[in-house]
């Protein structure tokens, strides 16, 4: 008992004694063995991460050793940043270091000058982003604004100091940290998600592996470079150890000294796992000069990604090779309890692929496997790669846009020179080209890990090496004292800029070809990347030639086009427990569209706004904060008030009164408004959107990006299995929401974003002082008809790429948030099934080879492409459909592409849709006696609706009772142009396209002089029914020539794109030129102002909007209608039929023709209108009907 107790006490005390006795004065070996700890992590929120990194001298303790290092925020190493694709990393780099000795170019120098490199990100290499040639000197501060690409590959990256001359020294000191771009959950398989953030972060093992404890060695060490670079903060050399030597001598001695790879600043930490557990090791080799060839004997390793790019299919391997700067994501499982070493070391079997390149030898960490066994599976699939990482192995030679050679060797030389300066460009290539480069190494024994900034490259082949070679000790400081020889040892005639024939051996020399033959060696050797994989760091073995390809996309100067990134959904926020509380702050924000940075009015800094996902009956509490500043005075019915805003929930069946969808509200600069949108309990599930809607600035603010998707989700129980399989909430990965908008709009014949910026007095235009390489200003470049851009964007992207599998069906939720263009979409080679228009399901899904969406409209379509390949979603005019559209603007161009790849799947199109709510009941067969009101809405000329421009919020053109069925005629007097008419509050049902007998206007009418237009009949004779501003002295009395090309919508093919199918519901309907369309709707649930307007937004801003009013039951007859100065819209002659609004009789319409008189007009759908009599106005309806 006594002995056992003593042993117990001894075992408990020994570690404490060691910890107490080992210190700077009493050094000992570093034991390691602490529990693995992640570095401090900070994550983005709402698309932004704001951080300050302060570089200063800090005390750092490594077990017992206390030393002084350059650190970020006092940490060793720096914090881990967790981001998402598209995030903005605003990083203030503060350099608190002091003065430094003068340095020599291309030698260790400038220990106190720094900067930052985001290693591996697909990001701009220009200020204020990843410009590594920037110098942040002692005492200086620099504000980085790293804008992650919306299609940034999720993966493991890192950041570190990168000032030329002090990179080795500062990284060795600890100026480095992990940077992780997280996957979207929907992109990962269940097995991958089970070992990954955001839901299973405990399964991730991020490891920043660095030789931060580096005091002895044959080559440069941290200690030796401290001396070379002139750093005064060395280990205290006056402290004498118990062995009678200084601490510095102890640390640098070959027997007692240390040179260890650390893990997150720890020495040989212990990772704890359960038997059978799988964890995701995110490993970064932040070492200085040593490669890592890692093994974990008796554990299984599955490779997931290299350098932050997923492999096509995860594969098992018994080693992990990571060159300096490189990364590997590996899934690791140890099935049996025990202790397992993660060890790096040279291996003769792999030496043919590595040569004499330094491999670190030693234990990196250990895995302690203990506890109960668990059952987990390795991932077998990986997320799709973005477009810029698409496979380039089989592209034809004709597609290669440039070729180049990068030659390494001798040491310190690349392409036969040392680094010169920041603007000495060795090669110039075009953006949006596929580049094919050869990476070669002239060294006979040593490899070099080559790193490329901005983008990854794909390994295409290891080739037969026929290039030159250099001797191993060449280039050791004397720039002329080396030469290139062929493989037979004869001197080459192609040498280098510093060549001095008097200083070298003229040859022949003996060439060591031990490491020759990389084209024929075993491809599974550690030093080789697998063909087809992507890297940003690749070991180029000695005497090797490697072919690589990459797509030079995204980042460059302005002389280029746009498009091609992987499709990305906008940020989504969803209701919870029936409520969604959000703040939308309207402010000026920097917006980056690929290479173009511009300033826009945005919601919360996003472009466009976030997507709201709701359910029927939900409450959307939305605080609209207007942070915009003062604005110039504006003119009514012209572009005005750029900084006054409001919000419209387009398509919802919702109250048009405050605090809900009252679009006549004004939220001025500096003001805040609390909206409380109460969704109807019977709200139709579907695709809707929200946008700014202040009259005068709607076009401008929507064009700026003040818009977002609003999706009301179906109840699962209401959907068929086929519909549920492509819909949220259970299959959100199958949904492709698309907010389609002409948000990049600089050139064109009509109003553009750029032209309206000028008209409305917006100071935040594109900088007109920036000059392109062609010698023109940026604004001139963008607005030029040849070089300029005017493109439909998808969720703020230009022509993104949607990835699908063969035969996969996905639900495209498309919103045309464009300004003035209709979309006539085709996807040649793919199948399209229409599910819904304007957020209302069709009765039965149907196949169609096009999708027509007027501005403001929506379409839900199920799409399937059966064969692997690339398919364009293209919009364009089509002569076959022109009779239904006229000359209405149809956008021409590619909207997006679909990249179909991978294994085929089996899916079926939906054949049924959910039932509609009561307010969308079928009204096609209701009897005339059930109609509670009739009205005419006449469009044309442009900017006029019912023969007037918009007057004010309370000038109601028609008043009707709630809970009545309304039958309205939408007509268009224009001879060539259609108008997409939008109705707020409710949808209407298309009943018929009728024979058009109404008036017409000439095309150039209404150009600013309110009286300078007139209405004519179809024979060209002037009508007696005109408008309130009619001025006979300013117009052509006629007869005029009427163009009837687009007459005949009642008899045209009903399948033409511009027509809605009879019986379908819309809230936006294109009214073709010279058209009359009968619609019906049930005015249910909501009283208040029902706004109608043309959804060509410049037309709306210029006056093509009016307000009708839905009154409580029985009150509409108090003020039913406002004509235009006594003239009835839709009529040409005073004898033309016009709806009896007051009485709404079954057999006739009543039309006021003069004070005190009523004209009785008999009307029947099968007969022309006939005037029966004129009687006193006091005559009763009953008497009239007799």
UniProtKB/TrEMBL annotation:
Transmembrane segments: none annotated. This is ferroxidase. Residues 1-19 form the signal peptide. Residues 67-184, 257-345, 423-466, 598-715, 786-876, 954-997, 1061-1109 form the Plastocyanin-like domain. Pfam families: Cu-oxidase (PF00394), Cu-oxidase_2 (PF07731), Cu-oxidase_3 (PF07732). Its EC number is 1.16.3.1. The keyword Oxidoreductase applies. Keywords: Metal-binding, Oxidoreductase, Signal. GO terms for molecular function: copper ion binding; ferroxidase activity. Belongs to the multicopper oxidase family.
């Amino acid at each position: 008992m006594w002995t056992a107790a003593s042993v117990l006490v001894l075992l408990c005390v020994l570690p404490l004694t060691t910890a107490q006795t080992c210190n700077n004065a009493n050094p000992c070996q570093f034991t390691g063995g602490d529990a693995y700890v992640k570095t401090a992590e900070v994550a983005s929120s709402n698309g932004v991460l704001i951080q300050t990194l302060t570089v200063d001298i800090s005390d750092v303790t490594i077990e017992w050793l206390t030393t002084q290092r350059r650190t970020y925020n006092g940490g060793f190493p720096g914090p881990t940043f967790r981001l998402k694709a598209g995030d903005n990393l605003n990083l203030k780099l503060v350099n608190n270091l002091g003065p430094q000795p003068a340095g020599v170019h291309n030698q260790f120098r400038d220990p106190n000058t720094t900067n930052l490199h985001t290693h591996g990100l697909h990001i701009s290499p220009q200020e204020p982003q990843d410009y590594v040639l920037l110098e942040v000197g002692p005492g200086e501060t620099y504000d980085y604004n790293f804008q992650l690409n919306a299609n940034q590959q999720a993966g493991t990256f890192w950041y570190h100091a990168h000032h030329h001359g002090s990179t080795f020294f500062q990284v060795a000191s600890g100026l480095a940290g992990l940077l992780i771009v997280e996957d979207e959950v929907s992109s990962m398989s269940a097995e991958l998600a089970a070992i990954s953030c955001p839901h299973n972060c405990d399964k991730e093992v991020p490891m920043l592996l660095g030789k931060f404890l580096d005091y002895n060695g044959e080559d440069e060490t941290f200690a030796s470079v401290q001396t070379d670079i002139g750093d005064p903060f060395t280990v205290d050399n006056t402290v004498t150890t118990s062995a009678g030597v200084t601490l510095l001598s102890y640390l640098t001695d070959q027997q007692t000294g240390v040179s260890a790879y650390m893990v997150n600043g720890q020495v040989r930490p212990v990772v704890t796992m359960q038997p059978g557990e799988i964890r995701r090791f995110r490993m970064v080799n932040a070492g200085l000069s040593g490669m890592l060839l890692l093994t974990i004997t008796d554990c299984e390793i599955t490779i997931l990604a290299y350098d932050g790019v997923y492999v096509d299919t995860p594969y098992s391997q018994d080693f992990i090779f990571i060159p300096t700067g490189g990364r590997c994501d590996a899934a690791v499982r140890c099935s049996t309890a025990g202790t397992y070493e993660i060890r790096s070391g040279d291996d003769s079997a792999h030496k043919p692929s590595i040569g004499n390149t330094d491999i670190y030898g030693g234990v990196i960490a250990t895995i302690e496997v203990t506890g109960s066994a668990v059952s987990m599976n390795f991932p077998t699939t990986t997320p799709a790669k973005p477009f810029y990482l698409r496979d380039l192995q089989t592209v034809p030679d004709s597609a290669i846009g440039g070729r180049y050679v990068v030659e390494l060797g001798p040491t310190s030389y690349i392409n036969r020179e040392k680094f010169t300066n920041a603007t000495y460009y060795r090669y110039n290539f075009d953006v949006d080209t596929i580049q094919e480069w050869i990476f070669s190494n002239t060294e006979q024994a040593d490899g070099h890990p080559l790193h490329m900034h901005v983008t990854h490259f794909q390994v295409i082949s290891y080739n037969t090496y026929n290039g030159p070679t250099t001797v191993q000790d060449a280039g050791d400081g004397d720039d002329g004292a080396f030469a290139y020889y062929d493989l037979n040892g004869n001197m080459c005639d192609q040498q280098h800029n510093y060549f001095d024939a008097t200083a070298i051996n003229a040859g022949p020399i003996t060439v060591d070809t031990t490491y020759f033959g990389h084209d024929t060696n075993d491809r599974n050797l550690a030093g080789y990347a697998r063909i087809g994989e992507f890297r940003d760091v690749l070991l180029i073995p000695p005497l090797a030639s490697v072919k690589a390809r990459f797509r030079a996309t995204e980042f460059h100067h302005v002389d280029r086009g746009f498009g091609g990134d992987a499709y990305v959904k906008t940020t989504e926020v969803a209701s919870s427990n029936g409520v969604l509380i959000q703040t939308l702050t309207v402010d000026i924000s920097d917006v980056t569209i690929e290479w173009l940075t511009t300033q826009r009015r945005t919601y919360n800094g996003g472009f466009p706004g976030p997507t709201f996902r709701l359910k029927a009956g939900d409450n959307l509490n939305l605080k609209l904060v207007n942070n915009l500043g003062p604005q110039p005075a504006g003119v009514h019915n012209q572009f005005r008030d750029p900084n006054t805003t409001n919000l419209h929930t387009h398509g919802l069946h919702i109250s048009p009164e405050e605090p809900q969808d009252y679009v006549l509200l004004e939220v001025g600069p500096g003001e805040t408004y609390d909206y409380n949108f109460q969704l109807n309990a019977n709200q139709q599930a579907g695709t809707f959107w929200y946008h700014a809607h202040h009259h005068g600035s709607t076009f401008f603010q929507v064009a700026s990006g003040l818009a977002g998707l609003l999706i009301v989700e179906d109840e699962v129980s209401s959907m068929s299995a086929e519909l549920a399989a492509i819909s949220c909430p259970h299959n959100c990965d199958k949904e492709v929401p698309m907010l389609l908008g002409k948000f990049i709009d600089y050139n064109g014949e009509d109003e553009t974003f750029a032209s309206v910026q000028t008209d409305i007095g917006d100071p935040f235009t594109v900088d007109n002082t920036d000059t392109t390489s062609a010698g023109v200003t940026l604004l001139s470049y963008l607005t030029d008809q040849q070089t300029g851009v005017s493109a439909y964007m998808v969720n703020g992207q230009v022509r993104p790429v949607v990835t699908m599998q063969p035969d996969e069906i996905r639900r495209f939720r498309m919103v045309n948030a464009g300004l003035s263009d209709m979309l006539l979409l085709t996807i040649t080679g793919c199948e399209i099934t229409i599910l819904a228009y304007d957020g209302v399901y069709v009765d039965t899904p149907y196949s169609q080879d096009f999708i027509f969406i007027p501005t403001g409209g929506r379409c839900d379509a199920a799409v399937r492409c059966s064969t692997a390949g690339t398919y364009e979603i293209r919009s364009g005019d089509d002569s076959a459909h022109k009779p239904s559209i006229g000359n209405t603007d149809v956008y021409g161009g590619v909207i997006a592409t679909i990249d179909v790849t991978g294994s085929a799947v089996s899916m079926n199109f939906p054949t049924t849709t959910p039932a509609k709510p009561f307010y969308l009941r079928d009204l096609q067969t209701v009897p005339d006696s059930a109609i509670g009101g009739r009205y005419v809405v006449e469009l044309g000329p442009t900017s006029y609706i019912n023969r007037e421009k918009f007057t004010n919020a309370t000038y109601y053109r028609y008043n009707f009772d709630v809970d009545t069925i309304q039958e309205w005629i939408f007509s268009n007097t224009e001879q060539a142009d259609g108008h997409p008419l939008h109705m707020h509050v409710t949808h209407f049902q298309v009943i018929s396209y009728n024979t058009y007998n109404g008036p017409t206007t000439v095309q150039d009418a209404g150009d600013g002089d309110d009286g300078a237009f007139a209405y004519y009949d179809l024979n060209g004779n002037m009508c007696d029914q005109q408008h309130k501003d009619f001025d006979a002295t300013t117009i052509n009395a006629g007869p005029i020539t009427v163009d009837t090309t687009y007459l005949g919508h009642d008899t045209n093919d009903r399948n033409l794109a511009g027509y809605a199918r009879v019986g379908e519901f819309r809230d936006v309907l294109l009214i073709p030129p010279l058209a009359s369309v009968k619609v019906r709707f049930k005015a249910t649930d909501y009283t208040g102002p029902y706004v109608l307007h043309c959804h060509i937004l410049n037309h709306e801003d210029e006056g093509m909007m009016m307000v009708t009013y839905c009154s409580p039951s029985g009150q509409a007859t108090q003020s039913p209608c406002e004509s235009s100065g006594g003239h009835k819209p839709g009529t040409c002659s005073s004898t033309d039929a016009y709806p009896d609004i007051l009485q709404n009789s079954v057999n006739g319409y009543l039309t006021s023709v003069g004070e005190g008189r009523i004209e009785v007009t008999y009307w029947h759908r099968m007969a022309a209108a006939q005037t029966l009599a004129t009687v006193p106005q006091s005559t009763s309806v009953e008497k009239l009907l007799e």
